[in-house]
Amino acid sequence: MLAVGSRDYRYEVVEGWAKLPPSITFGYTHGIETDAKGNVYVFHTGNPSVVVFDEDGNYLTSWGGQFEEGAHGFYLHEEADGAYLYVTDINCGLMVKLTLDGQEILSIGTPDRPDIYNDEKKFIPTDAAVAPNGDIYIADGYGEPYIHHYTKEGVYIRSWGGAGHEAGQLLRPHGISVDLRREEPELYVADRGNFRIQVFTLDGKHKRFITNDVDRPCSFYYTEHELFIPDLNSRVTIFDQQDQLITHLGEDQQAYKQEGWPNLPKSCYRPDRFSSPHGVCVDKKGNVYVAEWISDGRVTKLKRIIRCTCGSGCG
Question: Where are the NHL repeats (predicted)?
Answer without folding.
Answer: 161-203
